[in-house]
């Protein structure tokens, strides 16, 4: 963030809130004309600050009725073992997030599933037997009080 000026931060905040905004509207909102606005956005993309643009989908309307968080402990924390587990999780489309943690739990996963039966099948046939897994503890989401993608820019 140290290399970003106030206009860059405003551009990022606007794009984070509304990724489909036109360049002309974005320029108007941040006080630029369209050409320098587009140059700044492209520079932010080239620098990897903006990694992509995504639609925010309603999982339940697409048939994914449950979200589960799984806390995974591994048998070994050797780099090769970690990579094997991470590769296995990347291959599972239901695993939407996979974060390595420090402390008692090695990884936390965010998993979406159509129903409990589908989740149980994923758990017993793919997650528990995944490379190097020692144990899996799961918690079913009851409701989501806050879901804000991105990072605070103000």
TrEMBL record:
<dbReference type="InterPro" id="IPR036388">
    <property type="entry name" value="WH-like_DNA-bd_sf"/>
</dbReference>
<keyword id="KW-0804">Transcription</keyword>
<dbReference type="InterPro" id="IPR019885">
    <property type="entry name" value="Tscrpt_reg_HTH_AsnC-type_CS"/>
</dbReference>
<keyword id="KW-0238">DNA-binding</keyword>
<dbReference type="InterPro" id="IPR036390">
    <property type="entry name" value="WH_DNA-bd_sf"/>
</dbReference>
<dbReference type="Pfam" id="PF01037">
    <property type="entry name" value="AsnC_trans_reg"/>
</dbReference>
<dbReference type="InterPro" id="IPR011991">
    <property type="entry name" value="ArsR-like_HTH"/>
</dbReference>
<protein>
    <submittedName>
        <fullName>Lrp/AsnC family transcriptional regulator</fullName>
    </submittedName>
</protein>
<feature type="domain" description="HTH asnC-type">
    <location>
        <begin position="4"/>
        <end position="65"/>
    </location>
</feature>
<dbReference type="Pfam" id="PF13412">
    <property type="entry name" value="HTH_24"/>
</dbReference>
<dbReference type="InterPro" id="IPR019888">
    <property type="entry name" value="Tscrpt_reg_AsnC-like"/>
</dbReference>
<dbReference type="InterPro" id="IPR019887">
    <property type="entry name" value="Tscrpt_reg_AsnC/Lrp_C"/>
</dbReference>
<dbReference type="InterPro" id="IPR000485">
    <property type="entry name" value="AsnC-type_HTH_dom"/>
</dbReference>
<keyword id="KW-0805">Transcription regulation</keyword>
<dbReference type="InterPro" id="IPR011008">
    <property type="entry name" value="Dimeric_a/b-barrel"/>
</dbReference>
């Amino acid at each position: 963030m140290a290399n970003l000026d106030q206009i860059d931060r405003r551009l990022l905040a606007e794009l984070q809130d509304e990724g489909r905004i036109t360049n002309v509207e974005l320029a108007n909102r941040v006080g630029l004309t369209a050409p320098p606005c587009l140059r700044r956005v492209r520079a932010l993309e080239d620098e990897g600050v903006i990694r992509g643009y995504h639609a925010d989908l309603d999982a339940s309307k697409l048939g994914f009725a449950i979200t589960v968080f799984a806390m995974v402990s591994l048998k070994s924390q050797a780099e090769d073992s970690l990579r094997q587990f991470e590769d296995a999780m990347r291959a599972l489309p239901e695993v939407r997030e996979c974060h390595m943690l420090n402390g008692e739990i090695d990884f936390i996963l965010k998993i979406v599933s159509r129903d409990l039966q589908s989740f149980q099948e994923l758990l017993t046939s793919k997650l528990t037997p995944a490379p190097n897994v020692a144990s899996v503890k799961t918690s079913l989401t009851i409701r989501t009080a806050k879901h804000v993608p991105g990072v605070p820019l103000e």
